[in-house]
Design brief:
By secondary structure, the protein is an alpha/beta fold. It has one domain: TIM Barrel (Alpha-Beta Barrel), CATH 3.20.20. Helix content is about 35%, strand content about 15%. It has an eight-stranded parallel sheet with strand order 1-2-3-4-5-6-7-8. Strand 1, helix 4 and strand 2 form a beta-alpha-beta unit. Helix 1 crosses helix 6, helix 7 runs parallel beside helix 8 and helix 10 runs parallel beside helix 11. The longest helix is centred in the last third of the chain and has 16 residues. About 10% of the residues have low confidence.
């Protein structure tokens, strides 16, 4: 299951889970004590300093479903890959110069229960920030958003859906107004056909910071349509919109070295500038078949010969730092 398979994986649960109970507190304590294993030798802070890049988008999950139950009665057999824990993420990221990661709530496995990603950010506050999920049909989602800011939740994922034509309805307006006040990002996992309604929301809420995941999935079918790129680039007129250069495994030819995506990246650079674009892996889905983490970061780090070192620093670090690491 992955971000590009939205239609097969509707939201799993309809409950709020923002408070840490005794079990979660114990899990956080255990994780904090394991820090020496996660960052061997000299700890989290030094590892972050020595590995400058930021991955703006990765999921994690664990096989410890006693502490972190799966949504809708799913079992360990439903996990694919079987696990991608904090430790596994840090290992692959650190090997590629990445010291900080934005953790994205995984709706298919955990629904609205953000416990595992919040647990990771509490245990390792320098390394992680969180994009959580709240139910926009629930009462007072804005209050939920404000409470989670202390847990380094600096974004909230929203998902376009053919099944839910009211995906921007309910109390979504409250979420956008809250985000304009708190600085938390509204992070849209959308297909190209949903750029227009998101554009309308940006016009209605010009002070709300918005992040578009995975090029708005342009090229998911293989063909990279120029008209869709044009529509995405028109979002650049909204000064608080940022785009993730991510999920290379799922777009265009879907295999390294991803050079077929370079013209689209160049168009976005012209429209948004480097300060509103950021690289992300979309792990663990980037880690399959011919695709791997090193190939993903290499496209930005090594293969865009038309950008400067300063530009590269924005794409690999400074944009994500500004957008997500503000607390």
């Amino acid at each position: 299951m992955n971000d590009t398979e939205r239609a097969r994986h509707p939201m799993q649960q309809n409950h709020e889970s923002t408070c840490i109970d005794r079990r979660q507190m114990l899990a956080t304590t255990v994780a904090a004590g394991a820090g020496a294993l996660l960052w061997p030798g000299h700890g989290e802070a030094n590892t972050v300093a020595e590995h400058p890049w930021i991955d703006a988008h990765s999921h994690i999950w664990t096989r410890d479903i006693e502490k972190f139950p799966l949504a809708k009665g799913q079992t360990l057999d439903d996990l694919s890959p079987p696990s991608f824990t904090t430790e596994e993420l840090v290992e692959v990221a650190r090997a590629n110069g990445v010291g900080r990661v934005v953790l994205i709530q995984h709706g298919p496995y955990h629904g609205w229960d953000n416990s595992y990603v919040i647990h990771a950010a509490r245990a390792f506050p320098k390394a992680f920030r969180v994009v959580a999920m709240v139910d926009h049909y629930s009462q007072s989602p804005g209050q939920q958003m404000r409470r989670m800011l202390d847990d380094r939740v600096t974004g909230f994922r929203i998902r376009s859906s053919e099944r839910d034509r009211d995906w921007l309805g309910g109390n979504m307006g409250e979420m956008w107004r809250t985000a304009a006040d708190t600085g938390q990002n509204i992070c849209g996992l959308i297909n190209p056909e949903f750029i227009a309604p998101l554009d309308a929301m940006c016009q209605k809420h010009p002070e709300t910071p918005v992040v578009i995941d995975h090029f708005a999935r342009i090229g998911m079918s293989g063909a990279i349509e120029g008209s869709q790129i044009d529509e995405l680039c028109r979002l650049a007129r909204h000064k608080r919109v940022t785009v993730k250069l991510s999920a290379f495994y799922a777009l265009g030819r879907k295999e390294p070295p991803y050079l077929d995506l370079v013209p689209m990246i160049r168009r976005l650079l012209d429209a948004f500038g480097v300060e509103r674009l950021m690289w992300a892996s979309d792990s663990p889905y980037q880690l399959q078949g011919k695709n791997n983490y090193a190939a993903s970061i290499a496209l930005i780090r090594d293969r865009l010969d038309f950008i400067s070192e300063s530009d590269r620093d924005w794409l690999l670090r400074k944009t994500a730092e500004r957008v997500f690491f503000f607390v």
